[in-house]
Design goal:
355 residues; alpha/beta; Rossmann fold; Hypothetical protein af1432; 5-stranded parallel β-sheet; 57% helix; globular
Length: 355
């Protein structure tokens, strides 16, 4: 179902916030997008509204006087009729633990206040698309329209689209290059093929790798967008994007999202054990983690970030050579340099300067 179809069918969004100004602002933003919006100024009113009519999506504040947002989410997830409602937390709480708790109680996403209009629109649109796809798949299964193989393929394609969309949203929020996730996916696929992965596994790595930095949604803007060196405390917070990303993705039992969870967790581990978050070494690090680490570093060094300029290619290649056997799997680094022309072709094909 397209975004236009979703809006045409009067998608119902429930907004829960005890601050009138936020409630009015969010209502105005989403009504302008063509959605049907129901504002609720308290948790009690929100639960009454859900009992009257189940919404397609809920934007939920956390700090409220009667029941907090966590409790509201837990209450909805307890009942079969409401457990599948997509819930996006939108809160001024910036601590990583608060955000992890939001995901643990069943939230699908987390937006910080003060929020950006375009970010709210993008995330609402993404989750509504996913919910529409899910509803469509359930209907097809119930009616016996699709064969099992075709249905599974469509689910995989839906996951792939979601992964790329969420990866791109995360990169946009991080103010990083728009095609970073695309290039990382292409590099990862090529490296997987070069190290003799079969086509199915290489395709899964290609599809899962764009979510490597999804945990950055839980990192405060002040840290994520800081120009210059982070303090020790800020760096420790930044490193949690690996475990947060793993927590977000590992709730699914689907192989593609399970692989994405592993990549999110392990793409900063190092061959000599000096990486994070778990200090894994050598082949303790999954092949997917080792592959995505090289792909991510190769692209990130050549891209502009808020804290650095893009490196020139000779400096990037020297860094990767120096990291052979310390930061990176030596066999994978050898394969990378033996096939450097192919990686550079990908870099040129998906260059930011191309229109």
């Amino acid at each position: 179902m397209t975004e236009e179809n979703i809006k045409t069918h009067a998608t119902d969004i429930l907004i829960v916030d005890d601050t009138l100004e936020n409630l009015q602002l969010l209502t105005s933003i989403l009504k302008e997008e063509g959605y049907k919006v129901r504002p609720a100024s308290s948790s009690t009113i929100a639960l009454q509204a859900v009992a009257k009519k189940i919404p397609d999506l809920i934007l939920l504040d956390i700090q409220m006087p009667d029941m907090n947002g966590y409790q509201v989410c837990e209450e909805l997830k307890r009942h079969s009729a409401t457990r599948d409602i997509p819930i996006i937390f939108i809160s001024a709480l910036c601590d990583v633990n608060d955000k992890v708790k939001a995901f643990n109680v069943g939230g699908l996403d987390y937006i910080n206040k003060p929020f950006q209009f375009e970010e709210v629109k993008a995330r609402v649109s993404t989750h509504l698309k996913l919910k529409a796809y899910q509803n469509e798949m359930e209907q097809k299964v119930a009616e016996g329209i699709e064969k099992i193989n075709g249905l599974n393929q469509e689910i995989i394609e839906t996951q792939r689209e979601l992964i790329f969309t969420m990866g791109e949203i995360c990169e946009t929020r991080s103010k990083e290059t728009g095609k970073h996730v695309t290039r990382v996916a292409e590099y990862s696929y090529l490296l997987a093929i070069l190290c003799n992965c079969d086509e199915e596994e290489a395709q899964m790595i290609h599809q899962a790798s764009p979510m490597h930095d999804i945990g950055k949604v839980a990192i405060a803007d002040a840290i994520l967008h800081k120009e210059g060196r982070l303090t020790l405390e800020e760096w420790e917070t930044m490193k949690t994007h690996t475990t947060v990303g793993h927590t977000m993705l590992s709730v699914s039992h689907r192989p593609l999202l399970r692989m994405a969870a592993t990549i999110a967790l392990e793409h900063h581990e190092k061959w000599d054990g000096s990486g994070y978050p778990n200090g894994l070494a050598g082949e303790q690090i999954s092949l997917t983690g080792r592959v995505s680490a090289i792909a991510d570093v190769f692209d990130a060094l050549g891209s502009v970030r808020c804290y650095k300029e893009a490196w020139e290619l000779p400096a990037i290649l020297d860094f990767l050579k120096q990291g052979r056997g310390t930061s990176f799997d030596p066999k994978l680094i050898d394969l990378f340099f033996e096939n450097l022309d192919k990686f550079l072709e990908i870099r040129d094909k998906f260059s930011e300067t191309l229109t």
